[in-house]
Amino acid sequence: MDLQCARSLFPITRKAVFLNNAAESPLNILVRERLEGYLELAATAPNRKPSVRGDVRRLLARLLGGSPEEYALVTSTAIGIGIAAAGYPWAPGDNLVVPAEEHWNNTFPWLALKERGVDVRVVPLDASLRIDAARIADRVDDRTRLVAVAAVRHTTGFRADLRQLSRIAHDRGALLVVDGIQAAGVVPLNVEEDGIDVLACGGFKWLLGLPGTGFLCVRKSHWDLIRPVLPGMFSAEDDLRELRWLPDARRYETGSLAYALFHAWTAGLELLLETGVPAIHDRVLGLTSQLLEGLRARSLCVVSPVDHMEERSAILSFTAGTEAANQLLFDRLAEQNITISLRGGRCRVSPSFFNTEEEIDRFLKALK
Prior knowledge:
By secondary structure, the chain is α/β, with parallel strands linked by helices. It has helices at 3-8, 29-44, 53-64, 77-87, 108-111, 133-139, 162-171, 259-275, 277-297, 323-335, 357-366, and strands at 17-18, 71-74, 95-99, 119-123, 144-150, 175-179, 198-202, 214-218, 301-302, 316-319, 338-339, 341-343, 346-349.
């Protein structure tokens, strides 16, 4: 897909310079058309509404590895991680390891386990805001049951070395649980190749869906270990006398979903498969390199760790010096229809594959 074709799918490109894709992907016309088609059937022929669950699972497996049977459909990253956290068979004295300053969704479910006697070991970042694998390894021991980490950090865009963290966890018999929401769809991510045991992700960012869509991927070898915690009509056999879990990750699903949203999401997943995540990744790295050069030329402090290309993503964080100065800059950009975000008191820029070098130039010129 060429750039102009990609831009034609995102109406926001005709109205603004949208550099806030890490917050939410702007709705594209393919997803919107599929949503409207579902709504039309719901209004005129509800008995003809398409089946949704199997299609989404199959597309996710093609995009992120594993088998469709390893994917459960949930409504957000938090729900997916919460199911894994609550469903693990914790014993007093067990511990888990998580880096400091993760997203709330990869922090709160783990902190809640303290009430169950779990030792939650929060590992500080290094001086450059990187996750130091050696520090993680130092906190992992024979009572560590899992290591939890974001594939890409929401504040700085730092991309974790999942394969290394997987080896650290697996060497001690622990699981690797990954928050994938800032990675899936924009950087290469594969549950098999990266050694991921549990992957949770919402669909409304780089996966081109809408809020209310998401998944929990639990590898087959762990279905008997992580128990379902919210059983509903779609998690077990149709037998009201005995609870018999379905023989795959559907056991982690509950009741009805927002089927219109999930059906619409299939168009976004198909677009990603057609475009190719490696091509998307190369595109956004080129744009962030342009951003990086321009920010440094303007003597703005880049906060994101960027020395190693393999640790970079589509997110770049910088500061004008103070939170007040960053807010002023944010407001000035908004007046010129240039959209970024503020995270942790810093400015965060996150281009997608439909953004252009000209838009990056416009953003940089507006920083004066």
